[in-house]
Design goal:
mainly alpha; N-utilizing Substance Protein B Homolog, Chain A
Length: 144
Amino acid sequence: MGRRRRAREHALQILFQIDLTGGNAEEVLESFWGELDAGDDVREFTARLVRGTLDDREQIDRRVAEAAKNWRLERMPAVDRNVLRIAVYELVSADSPPPVVIDEAIEVARRFGGEESAGFVNGVLDEIRARLDAERQSAGDDGG
């Protein structure tokens, strides 16, 4: 398994814990690493995903809620909700190519989520990606 996939899985576990317990991100990160041996690059990418997702959570949750037709955010399984949050953060930050982000999110959902998680995550992220593409296209048209 690649380092970035491992970091995404760690970020999911940390965000899941924060989501369920309301814990402080820095405390949860510190506690998480106390139990696990990971390289600096994995730790750094994990921390960036966790902090970025939490910092932009209001905007991310809005995007997920708009794209997840007939699903309220609080009714989604916690794993699916947090996989989506991480992926949307990555899609918006444009750090990795969108197909890679979506494929990675599907694999993480498949590993940690329920039977239908991968399909659900795929559908929501495809919708979000299309909306982001339209926003970027519109912004490009306005600037030219």
